[in-house]
Amino acid sequence: MTKRKRTATAATTTTSSTSSLLPQKKHYRQRAHANPFSDHSLVYPSSPCIDWTTHYPAFAGQRPSFADIGCGFGGLLIALAPQFPDNLIIGLEIRVQVTQYVQDRIAALRATTDDYQNISVVRANAMKFLPNFFQKASLAALFFLFPDPHFKTRKHKARIISQTLLAEYAYVLAPGGIVYTITDVEDLAQWMRAHLDAHPLFQFVEEQELRDEGKGPILDAVYSATEEGKKVERNAGQKWLACFRRIQVKRINV
Predict the structure, then answer these.
(1) HSE (CB half, 13 Å, CA atoms) of 81?
(2) Which of 48, 215, 227, 254 could form a disulfide with 135 if both were Cys (CB 3.0 to 4.6 A apart)?
């Protein structure tokens, strides 16, 4: 009994220590969205031949295989980290304060446990500089979770899923890699599905098929790990999931 009591006390102390280190969102105030066409003060690599050691000190020489585009407050990163300890996961976020929050959140978690050495975040505009960060066919998964719907027709060009951008996503995804999309806006769901369906290098995959392949933990996190996903659940809203596999197409020599 005494031994169990000490273990419980130690666990409580660790949890308390972690909670005291975690950043508070109220200190990182930021607008909900940023204009991807603005000239932000961004530092980005001139080529994707990046040494990721500063982001993942425990994984020298390795590179990310999962990328969360517009990672927000890092909910997906935190959820996937302990479930996929051998995969490096990177979040890309354009907003300054939100990026800083995720950096501080990861640092706090790393200070108390080894479970989060495989996640990191960079401030980046994925609509402009994605190929500067990732080599050809280097990713196994791309996530677009509750992206800005840009409701006005004149703003649709700013949507993160478009024919032009899909060519870049196909470039950085390895054959067999998966694009995960989810939204609570039906019009945006139809838009993303239509554009991905129309692209020759992406093929729709049923949710059950992915679960049968062992990707259930990823799908569960896609549904519920993000702040936006939790908000939709609190409001009893609906979510539309659509996943696509990067396929290999044989070249035709003319």
Answers:
(1) 21
(2) 48
Element (H, E) at 211: helix 207-212
- pTM recorded for the entire structure: 0.86
The pLDDT tens digits for 204-253 are 999 999 999 999 999 999 999 999 999 999 999 999 999 999 999 877 77
CA distance 133 to 178: 18
Instruction: Give tens-digit pLDDT for 123-164.
Output: 999 999 899 999 999 999 999 999 999 888 887 888 999 999
How many angstroms separate the CA atoms of 61 and 229, rounded? 34
Structure tokens that stand for 149 in this block: 């719907």
Residue environment code for 199-233, b if the CB has 16+ CB neighbours within 10 A, otherwise e: bebbeebeeeebeeeebeebbebbbebbebbeebe
- For the chain, how far is it from start to end, CA to CA, in angstroms? 77
Buried-state track 125-134, b at ≥16 Cβ within 10 A, e below 16: bbbbbbeebb
Distance, CA of 76 to CA of 240 (rounded, Å): 17
Catalytic residue among 115, 148, 184, 197: 148
Q: Is 148 a catalytic residue?
A: yes
Cα–Cα–Cα angle for 38, 222, 192, rounded to 5 degrees: 55
